[in-house]
Amino acid sequence: MVTDSVRRRLLRGALGGLALAPLSGVLGGCSQSRSSSMARHIDANTHTKTHTNRLDVEQAIIGCSRYPNGQFGAVVATPDGHPVHQFDLPARGHGIAVQTEGSLAAAFSRRPGTYLQVFDYRTGETWPLRLADQNRYYYGHGVFSPDGRLLYATEGKTATSEGVIGVYELEPSTTSHPIKKVAEFTGFGIGPHEVILVDDNTLAIGVGGVHTRGRTPLNIETMQPALVYLDRRSGELVEQAELADKRLSIRHLSLTDTGEVACGQQYRGEPEGAVPLVALHRRGGRFESLIAEDEEWLRFNHYIASISSLDGYLLATSPRGNCYGIWRASSRELVSVSPLIDASGVGVLDNRWLVGSGAGKVVSVKPPANRASFQGPVMWDNHWNIINTPNLSV
């Protein structure tokens, strides 16, 4: 089994051989973005920037990253992994929510997170940083409403880890406080992580069930993970599903192309335990776990990050296992496991998967097994999305 310390050594070794493009230091505050061709100052209070050019890019990658100088950011990059906009973040980021209609994105800090950062991924403009409310912290994920006016964020209560969905209204015309919390949904469990939209009216939430102090778990023996569905307008619980093994903390979610919710788990049991780490759920039914041999599950080092479906296959990444796996959705059986140091985000572009790495590699995968890879300068961290970007500004 690959341990976290081994993973870190592998990552350092991979980065040591890269000629990463140097970044020009961390800019003051988080009201600036940088392009690959020029530096630009952005006034967060007026949402304006000083210079604009156009880049003919129809689609792009957007995700959190680490800088070579040890700092953190969010990056909009071309499909070959080269940055167009880089947004400095005050601490490590995790997931990014993207408007379906519009050009705003929200980067969430890694749990227990203290901030969310909204920015315009087409123009490079940033909004004022939104800090977590008192006695609240962010779990690292969120999702926009279908019309893009509301942002739903997974949060926790500091003392108890009780789950909260913070509902934020975005008002770009309000320059001082454009991100206003208008509601909180509670009562669905502790330790929520990722939230997604499964239809226009329903949120799905991966509830990990773990009470933590900082990042230290306190209730492993009594944790109660679940996949819960909430009405996004009222916050009412509409459905709940549970895995048989309560040591499987449900973490990451993805809506498949057949309408099921794919759930990636973190196993909190014995170090030598080999358990299914990905399961599928259809509304009104039960969980169905994906199938692999014990030694194959152990390759993932008890943790699944990003999941994506394409052409009847599922791909799941494991940064802790330094690999990604591909399953055939119809049979639930594993097709292959491939090594990739610090495997992180995955998304679909031109009917292929793009899989990212903390070492800068991007792997293009045509299911089930056609692969190509290329090296870029961005040290991708955790998750990313593929976005449509006509008339991207630089």
Main attributes of the structure:
394 residues, mainly beta, Methylamine Dehydrogenase, Chain H, six-stranded antiparallel β-sheet, four-stranded antiparallel β-sheet, 2 helices, 36 strands, 5% helix, UCP028101, DUF1513 domain-containing protein
Tell me what you see in this structure.
- 5% of the residues lie in helices and 49% in strands.
- The protein is built from two helices and 36 strands.
- The strands form ten sheets. It has a six-stranded antiparallel beta sheet with strand order 2-1-8-7-6-35, with no helix packed on it.
- The chain is globular.
- The chain starts with a helix and ends with a strand.
- Residues 12-32 and 35-54 have low confidence and may be disordered.
- Summed up, the domain count is 1
How many H/I helices? 2
Please list the strands of the largest sheet in the order they lie side by side.
2-1-8-7-6-35
Number of strands: 36
The proportion of residues forming helix, as a percent range, comes to under 10%
Structural class: mainly beta
The CATH architecture assignment turns out to be 7 Propeller
Mean pLDDT: 86
> Rounded to an integer, what's the Rg over CA atoms?
20 Å
State the fourth-level CATH superfamily. YVTN repeat-like/Quinoprotein amine dehydrogenase
Distance between the termini: 43 Å
CATH topology: Methylamine Dehydrogenase, Chain H
Strand fraction band? over 45%
Low-confidence stretches: 12-32, 35-54
> What is the CATH class designation?
Mainly Beta
The shape, in one word, is globular
Organism: Photobacterium sanctipauli
InterPro entries: UCP028101
Protein name: DUF1513 domain-containing protein
Pfam family, one: DUF1513
